[in-house]
Amino acid sequence: MVRAWHIDESKLDENKLELSENERELVNLEDLKEHTGVLYWKLNADTYNEDGTLDEIRKCRGYTYADEIEVSSKTLPNFDVMIKKFASEHLHTDEEIRFILAGKGYFDVRDANSDDWIRIEVVGGDLIILPAGIYHRLVLDKDRFSLERQYGPHMKEVIR
C-alpha cells in the first residue's frame, strides 16, 4: 500500500527524504484524492502487460502517449541536471500517469486546502495519476534510481 504524509520542507534536506514515524502526519488515499486530486492503483509490475488493468485505465482516460524512462546515472544523459529538473516544482497542462516499474521515489504534491506539500512514496507496482495543473515534483530516494512508464494524451510541461 502506498504511503503518503504531510511534509515540512524546513525539516527535510537531500539526506533526509523520510521523516521518522513520530514526525509524520500520514494521509490516507481518500484524503489524498480529496485534497490533491491524485488517484492511485497498485498493479503487478511483472504482469501488467498481460492482465490488462493498465490498458483499461489508459483507454478510459484517453491516453495515447507512452514513454519509458530509466532515471539513473548510467542511462539518463545529464543525470544531475535532469534530477534537479524533476525535483523542481512544476506542473503539466494535462493529467499525467506515472507507473513505477522498479526503484523508489517520492512525488510531492500540493494540498489544495493548505498549499502544503504531501509526499507520496512510490515503489514498483505503484501507479498514480496527477491531475492537470497540480504543482508537483519527483525526488528520488537515496539509491537515485527509478524505472517508470509515463502516459498521457501528450506531454506539455510548464516549469514554475
Count of distinct strands: 11
The succession of helices and strands, N to C, reads EEHEHHEHEEEEEEE
Nearest-integer average pLDDT: 83
Structural class: alpha+beta
Main β-sheet description:
9 strands, antiparallel
Portion of residues within helices: 10-25%
The rough form would be described as globular
Ends apart, CA distance between termini = 31 Å
As a percent range, the share of strand residues is 35-45%
Question: How many separate helices?
Answer: 4
Low-confidence stretches: 155-160
Gyration radius over CA:
15 Å
Which characteristics define this entry?
disordered C terminus; 160 residues; two-stranded antiparallel sheet; 11 strands; nine-stranded antiparallel sheet; alpha+beta; single chain; 18% helix
